[in-house]
Amino acid sequence: MGRSLKVAAAQVGAVHRTTSRAEVLDRLINLVTDAASQQVKLVVFPETTFTTFFPRYYITDDAELANYYELETAETGPVTQTVNVKAFFEKAKELGVDVQIGYGEDTGNGRYNTAVYVSGKTGDVLHKYRKVHLPGSTEPFDLDPNTTNQLEKRYFLPGNFGFQAFRATSLKDDCGGASPIVGQLICNDRRWAEGWRCYGLQGVEILCCGYNTTAYAPQLWGGDQNISREKAYADAMFHHKLVVQAHAYTNSMFCITSARAGTDDGRHPLIPGSMIVNPEGYIVAESKTENDELVIATIDLDDCKQGKERTFNLGKHRRPETYGRLVEEGGVKPPPER
Ligand code: CDT
Q1: Main-chain phi, psi angles of 109, to 5 degrees
Q2: Radius of gyration (C-alpha) of the chain in whole angstroms
Q3: Ligand 1 within 6 A of 113 CB?
Q4: Which among 8, 122, 163, 322 has most CB atoms closer than 10 A?
């Protein structure tokens, strides 16, 4: 077990439109403190963790909207030092725990759906990822304030950093002198094979992914508008697990997924399903509630070797000369009718 590491997904329960930043911060600090007390070295938090999942609302008040982002400019410094949230990062550093956490990033020139990976040793941002696949629409499909919209295309620009892996140098000593190779995705990204493969091609061993996935929104999804809440929930959980388990397996990597769960505002249900998946695609630990909860497992990064060296030895078995369409085409082009 030369490269074994204790890791956690920190699931976060309901955060309402009216929940204060201070309350959320307290809950996050409790989670990271609890993780540290159990010798966890890396904790993955959800997408847009510091606030409710605001892209579900059609927000016309610019001041309210601005408040959902962390302003990150030359003057403010990195997110770890911004006034709203620095207490969380200071606590993680004090405890010596690496964290990945998602938030709305406002650079002053553009807004992104972002996740940072922060070293528990130094408090430095080791890597920043901006969500590439933004689901939903720019315009609300329904102006009823109780409706669940999905307005990420309105509130964020598509991520412009690509799928760049990095070394978690902070964990080098914990992992037998070889720093883990880490990749990041945010929510909807996990449904697209392209990002996973980009990370697979960089030898990623731990994929970190936070999400907010609605458990019931037939108006948004299309399809059966009379679907029951139970069936919708089961479908959403099934698809979440299906994509994560399949892509972890085909890219021979561990994946830590972390949910914003619970029912926001009493009417916007989100699935839980925070889990740690191994390179064979099996779930090794999984959340049991819809509330704030740590999902913990000790993983051995050497378990990635079998898949990477045999079945999914990418250099040996891939035929990139046949994959041109993947980068040449954006959408579907069926063959012509004869
Ligand atoms: N936050 C986010 O990306 N949510 C999307 C909902 C898409 S509608 C199926 C997700 O992929 O979970």
Answers
A1: -115, -10
A2: 20
A3: no
A4: 8
Domain boundaries, the chain: 4-317
Q: Please give the CATH topology (third level) of the domain spanning 4-317.
A: Nitrilase/N-carbamoyl-D-aminoacid amidohydrolase (3.60.110)
Cα(31)–Cα(25) distance, rounded to whole angstroms?
Answer: 10
Task: Centre a 10 Å sphere on the Cβ of residue 29 and count the other Cβ atoms it contains.
Answer: 16
- CA-nearest residue, atom 1 of ligand 1: 212
Catalytically annotated residue among 187, 208, 209, 255 = 187
Q: Give the confidence band of 1 by pLDDT, cuts at 50, 70, 90.
A: low
For 248-267, the pLDDT digits (tens) are: 999 999 999 999 999 999 99
Contacts of 208 (CB under 8 A, 6+ apart): 44, 100, 115, 117, 182, 183, 184, 185, 255, 256, 258
Indicate if 309 belongs to the active site. Answer: no
Unique residue bearing structure tokens 């976060």: 12
